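Before going further, learn to read the protein records used in this course. A complete example follows; check for yourself that the lines match position by position.
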Amino acid sequence: MKNILLTVLILIGTISFGQNLKCEDFKKGTFTSEITIPMKMKCILIRNGNEQKEVITEIPDELKDLGLFNKTIYGKIEWIDDCSYRLIYDESKDELNESQKLINSSGGILTEFIKIEGNCIYYKSLAKINGNEQVINGVICKD
């Protein structure tokens, strides 16, 4: 009886703590993402190594009429290491708006993964627009 109880406890422990995600686990696949700063937005990310497709699923009401976030956004990812990358908007797949063009001309969006909790990774991104730095904080979760 003790052996059965010990085996069950080991299995529960393995199942509970067996998912040790690493930064590289967020390079390929489908994820949900939520931006928390500077505004709340939600999207679905589809990544295939060096390519990313973002489908916006939720934006603040005050931004809906601008028309900037009501389409799929394509990007190219240049991985710096497993936990940081630079994203450049892909103009070969869609016409870029002025903000995207400015971000691309300033070197893109630099993103660094900060911490992993459960099946989610928290990140901090930095983009420059007209010399002004814009910080974006958010979380990406594996489905």
The CA atoms of residues 48 and 87 lie 13 Å apart. Helices lie at 2-17, 61-64, 98-105. The chain has three helices and eight strands.
